[in-house]
Structure formats: structure tokens, C-alpha cells
Amino acid sequence: MRATAFTTIRWLRMTNVRNCKTDCQCSDKLRRILLKIPINKYDEMELDQKIYKIEKKYKQCFEKQMNSN
Q: Domain for residue 44, yes or no?
């Protein structure tokens, strides 16, 4: 399998995800979904929607934890 531009970008995005707190589930879910490789175009579209939703939850959780410190 050859790395495409999208898989490389997703890998870099995954490495930039930080934990909101110890054992944070939202950051773990985001990392896992970013590493998933789509099978076809439809799977890729569905994956992009999931990434958007989980990333939104992650940002809320991360901001909440940063504001509480």
C-alpha cells in the first residue's frame, strides 16, 4: 500500500492531538478515527463526517479542560 496525501495529512493530524486530561476518551477516539484508512469514496465521505463530529467534541472538551486550569 502506498501512502496518499490524505493518509499522510491524517497521520500528521493524529500526532498533533493532545490529551484533554488523563485517559481522555475523546482524544483517543479522534486518534483512532484519523488513522482509519477508507476503502472507497463512500467510506471516505462517511469517515470525514465522523472526523468532523468527533473533532468538534474533542475541541469542546479540550477548551473546557484548558479553561478550568
A: yes
Asked, for residue 61, whether it belongs to a domain, the answer is yes
11/59 Cα distance (integer angstroms): 18
The pLDDT, as a whole number, for residue 3 is 64
Which residues, at least 6 apart from 47, have a Cβ–Cβ distance to it below 8 Å? 33, 36, 38
DSSP string, the chain: -PPPHHHHHHHHHHHT---SSTT-HHHHHHHHHHHPPPSSHHHHHHHHHHHHHHHHHHHHHHHHHHHH-
Question: Does residue 15 lie within any of the structural domains?
Answer: no
pLDDT averaged per 10 residues, the chain (length 69): 74 87 86 88 91 93 83
